[in-house]
Design goal:
Elements: H1 7-17, H2 46-54, H3 59-66, H4 70-74, H5 77-82, E1 89-90, H6 105-122, H7 131-152, H8 161-168, H9 177-187, H10 199-202, H11 205-227, H12 232-254, E2 261-262, E3 266-268, E4 280-282, E5 287-288, H13 290-296, E6 304-308, E7 317-321, E8 334-337, H14 340-352, E9 357-361, E10 367-368, E11 373-374, H15 381-385, H16 393-398, E12 406-416, E13 419-426, E14 438-442, H17 443-449, E15 450-456, H18 462-465, E16 473-475, H19 480-485
Parallel strand pairs: 6-8, 7-16, 11-14
Antiparallel strand pairs: 1-12, 2-5, 3-4, 6-15, 7-8, 9-12, 9-15, 10-11, 12-13, 13-14
Helix pairs in contact: 6-9, 7-11, 7-12, 11-12
């Protein structure tokens, strides 16, 4: 969900747009610098600058800090030294996968959530789904959703706020839980060998750039046809032609999804046959469809509920964000907002019963990505820099300093004297960071940075489930939660 940005490229683009005195046709308009400070009402004046300079840190501190990474200087050693790998309750979800240079964390976490079902049903030691398979259909469905929104907003001014939301980011990698569950229920799943990753699924930047350009070109054509008086049915005929181009492009970049595949496993040998000395054996060939494979797991993803704990919203309320989905013919993500204690209790109940928990959090805050540590106030910038950087979670969200921007999987917890002190997290950044890709999330980090859990409804109390009977509060398309998780 984290949007990959080529910072160097962006910087070059910005610099290329800046006027240069050497190439100005009229030298009188060239940008010049002056040693004098122009002051005015509300501006920075010379007296202010003198005061600022007088209050600056001593040279030794400036020299030390300017030569070192702020995180390395401010990271609390006491937290790192006290970290251990023990969890009183833990689910085996297998090896960690790697989303590489793509923003598909939400999909990787969802498929990791299903992996134990395959391990249990087919008696395999480990299993990984094809993320590329579901990525293909996610992109195709997002393109269709985009075209439908262009038809819906065809009469809007080009600078309309809702229209700009879609034109700004028409087909990003990001998504929510329901983006994954809807795609899985409609198109099924396949093993990773049935549709392997490609250069473009591992690094989506260029593919997305081309897709975005194609979709925006099609959007302009749809809007022009709407101005000419074409009906919705006629515009949808054009949309079908546009989708065919998208399908072809996705096929060239990601490969074409299989309609059927050979389902085979290397399974554990129960050794009932004493003559068979092998520890593992290969199952017979069996061709199935992706939907058949998904249904064989006995999972009903519609039983899983999205619970939030966001202090910026009213607790014990039911919310949806307008048009927050990747499939046009699906429903917007339902969100129940509850107090933190109920929120964490539901996650604990799920893990205790052997079901991992998909979650969304602010992964840009107090996380050591190399060591895999998530601890509130892990970086003490205030003491190091002499400034106060602390803000409550509510204000951080409202003022744009914090929002859910990464999805992972909770696979365990450590309970000491009846209180959970830390949680075990399966990430999707490969096996190098943390403990072979698993992170340690301390409970205080959950309080300030986790916004969403996905749990089976059987782990929720009746009063929480009854919130779904209420008429939902509809949040606008530009709500912060949609704008950031969909990156």
């Amino acid at each position: 969900m984290l949007k990959k940005i080529l910072w160097a490229t962006t910087a070059c683009m910005v610099l290329s747009l800046a006027p240069c005195p050497a190439f100005c046709a009229d030298n009188s308009t060239a940008i010049t610098t002056s040693s004098s400070v122009v002051s005015g009402v509300g501006g920075i004046n010379a007296d202010m600058l003198k005061k600022f300079s007088a209050a600056k840190p001593y040279d030794g501190k400036i020299n030390a800090i300017s030569a070192q990474n702020l995180n390395e200087l401010s990271e609390k050693r006491s937290v790192l030294q006290a970290k251990d790998k023990f969890f009183t309750t833990k689910i085996d979800t297998g090896a960690v996968s790697d989303q590489k240079r793509s923003g598909r964390c939400w999909l990787f976490a969802a498929l990791s959530m299903l992996s134990p079902k395959v391990v249990e049903k087919y008696s395999v030691s480990d299993f990984e789904f094809s993320q590329n398979y579901n990525t293909f259909y996610d992109k195709l469905e997002k393109a269709n959703m985009f075209y439908e929104m262009m038809i819906k907003y065809a009469d809007r001014d080009i600078m309309d706020r809702n229209l700009r939301i879609w034109l700004k980011d028409p087909i990003s990698d990001g998504g929510h839980w329901t983006f994954a569950s809807d795609i899985i229920e409609k198109y099924g799943v396949v093993p990773n060998y049935a549709m392997a990753e490609t250069v473009h699924s591992n690094n989506t930047t260029t593919m997305n750039y081309v897709l975005e350009g194609l979709l925006r070109k099609h959007a302009a054509e749809i809007r022009e046809l709407a101005k000419q008086g074409k009906s919705v049915d006629e515009l949808r005929q054009v949309k079908e032609k546009d989708l065919s181009e998208v399908y072809s492009l996705l096929t060239m970049c990601l490969g074409e999804p299989p309609q059927k595949f050979n389902l085979r496993f290397e399974v554990k040998n129960d050794k009932k046959d004493k003559k068979d000395k092998k520890d593992k054996k290969i199952t017979e060939s069996k061709f199935v469809t992706p939907v058949e494979f998904y249904k064989s797991l006995g999972v009903n993803l519609s039983d899983y509920i999205s619970i939030f704990s966001n202090p910026a919203w009213n607790y014990n309320e039911y919310y949806v964000i307008e048009n927050n989905r990747n499939m046009y013919d699906s429903k917007d993500l339902p969100m129940i907002n509850i107090e933190l204690d109920k929120f964490k209790e539901a996650a604990k109940n799920s893990i205790k019963d052997g079901e991992p928990v998909w979650f969304a959090a602010d992964a840009s805050h107090d996380m050591d990505r190399k060591l895999g540590v998530m601890y509130e106030d892990l970086y003490d910038y205030s003491s190091l820099l002499g400034i106060n950087t602390k803000m409550p979670k509510k204000e951080r969200y409202l003022y744009g300093s914090s929002v859910a921007n990464h999805a992972m999987l909770v696979t365990g917890y450590d309970e000491v004297n009846g209180k959970i002190t830390k949680w075990c997290v399966k990430n999707s950044w490969g096996k190098t960071p943390g403990d072979a890709g698993y992170f340690t999330m301390y409970d205080n980090w959950v309080d300030d940075n986790v916004y969403q859990f996905i749990v089976n409804k059987k782990y929720l109390s009746k009063d929480v489930l009854d919130l779904l009977k209420k008429t939902p509060v509809v949040l606008p398309e530009y709500d912060l939660m949609r704008e950031n998780l969909n990156k």
